[in-house]
């Protein structure tokens, strides 16, 4: 559980485990060594009506024997907890958890896919995942789509009946105005005054198209040698990315890979442009967090990102895998401070009105209390 899924779930836990919400929450997690996760869960446990269980047998990949063990253990935990509501998140937990809860007779089962597995799988694997998702959908009462594009895609693929698919957009808080945060953050990243900075905050996995981002970065640097690129995140491609950056014929520190940062949300303040080269998305928090700070974005024109970015108004959308267009859009923003300011302010207003944290929580509260 990393990246946007972790943020989404921890945002829900932070609110609904509070004593004043009158819920008792028990989390079941497939912990895979994400930095800081256990400490975060322990903080929730100390502060409110929350407890959790780690389920090491539930793995990301399809492993039939391990999945059968995980399913059996899930049933035992759910039988002991005896919940009124089960809310599953992501593909593996969503398939196993919905079947386990349904077979135990849980009255209310909700699922948030974040990204449907069939969105990224091709051929036979994609068809199998779609079939599994349709079967699991019959076991739950509501499927929470994080954006309108995701719901439309689910309807087109006949995942579930229209009345079962509801949209609750991801939401973020608008940071308080702080005139000194940009200077402090840039100083922390050793960014000199006047040095343009482009950021990407992402899990370093194939989904994020990180190779395309590197191609775009080298094109920009060839035209604007003073630009710095900062990549924040870790993941299975981290070592490969470090090797590729080291092999590039560019100056030192022109492309920095910071790895995992617990303060990633704060770092947006240091950037002039934020880019995201994803191959697919649910509804990306990275874009919301950048836009909430008034930073214009350049993202690939994929499901989820196009729900967030108004092309030409809050940033730009570029065709999938088009490093040249991503680079051109970045350069156009870096070269025009007035355009950056106008788009950034428009982006901030869009998040405040369409993707607020308050709306995200209120709609989940309504869903749970139905």
Please characterize this protein's 3D structure:
The protein has 370 residues and is of the alpha/beta class. The chain has two domains: 3-171 and 356-369, Glycogen Phosphorylase B (Rossmann fold), CATH 3.40.50; 181-354, Rossmann fold. It is built from 15 helices and twelve strands. It has helices at 3-16, 37-47, 64-81, 91-103, 123-137, 148-156, 181-188, 210-223, 238-247, 264-267, 285-292, 305-308, 323-334, 337-354, 357-369, and strands at residues 25-29, 50-54, 85-89, 108-112, 142-145, 165-167, 197-201, 228-232, 255-259, 273-276, 297-300, 315-318. The strands form three sheets. Strands 9-8-7-10-11-12 form a six-stranded parallel β-sheet, with helices on both faces. A four-stranded parallel β-sheet has the order 3-4-5-6. Strand 11, helix 12 (305-308) and strand 12 (315-318) form a beta-alpha-beta unit. The longest helix has 18 residues, at 64-81. It is globular and about 60 Å long. The protein starts with a helix and ends with a helix. The mean pLDDT is 92.
């Amino acid at each position: 559980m990393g990246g946007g899924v972790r943020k989404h779930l921890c945002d829900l836990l932070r609110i609904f485990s509070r004593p004043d919400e009158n819920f008792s929450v028990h989390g079941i997690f497939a912990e895979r060594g994400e930095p800081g996760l256990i400490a975060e869960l322990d903080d929730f446990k100390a502060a409110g009506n929350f407890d959790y269980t780690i389920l090491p047998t539930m793995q990301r990949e399809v492993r039939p024997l391990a999945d059968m063990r995980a399913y059996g253990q899930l049933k035992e935990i759910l039988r002991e907890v005896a919940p009124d509501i089960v809310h599953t998140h992501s593909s593996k937990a969503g398939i196993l958890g919905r079947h386990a809860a349904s077979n135990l007779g849980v009255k209310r089962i909700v699922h948030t896919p974040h990204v449907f597995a069939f969105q990224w799988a091709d051929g036979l694997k994609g068809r199998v995942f779609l079939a599994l998702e349709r079967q699991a959908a019959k076991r739950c009462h509501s499927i929470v789509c994080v954006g309108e594009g995701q719901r439309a895609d689910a309807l087109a693929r006949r995942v579930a009946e229209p009345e079962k698919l509801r949209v609750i957009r991801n939401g973020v808080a608008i940071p308080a105005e702080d005139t000194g945060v940009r200077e402090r953050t840039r100083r922390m990243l050793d960014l000199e005054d006047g040095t343009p900075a482009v950021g990407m905050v992402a899990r370093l996995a194939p989904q994020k198209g990180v190779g395309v981002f590197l191609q775009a970065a080298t094109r920009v640097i060839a035209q604007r040698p003073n630009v710095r690129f900062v990549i924040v995140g870790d993941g299975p491609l981290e070592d490969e990315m470090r090797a590729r950056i080291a092999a590039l014929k560019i100056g030192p520190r022109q492309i920095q890979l910071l790895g995992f940062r617990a303060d990633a949300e704060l770092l947006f303040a240091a950037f002039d442009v934020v880019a995201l080269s994803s191959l697919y998305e649910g509804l990306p928090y990275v874009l919301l967090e950048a836009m909430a700070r008034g930073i214009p974005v350049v993202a690939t024109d994929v499901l989820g990102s196009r729900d967030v970015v108004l092309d030409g108004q809050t940033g730009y959308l570029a065709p999938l895998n088009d490093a040249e267009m991503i680079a051109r859009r970045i350069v156009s923003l870096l070269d025009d401070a007035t355009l950056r300011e106008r788009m950034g302010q428009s982006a901030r207003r869009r998040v405040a009105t369409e993707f607020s944290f308050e709306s995200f929580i209120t709609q989940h509260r309504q869903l749970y209390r139905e």
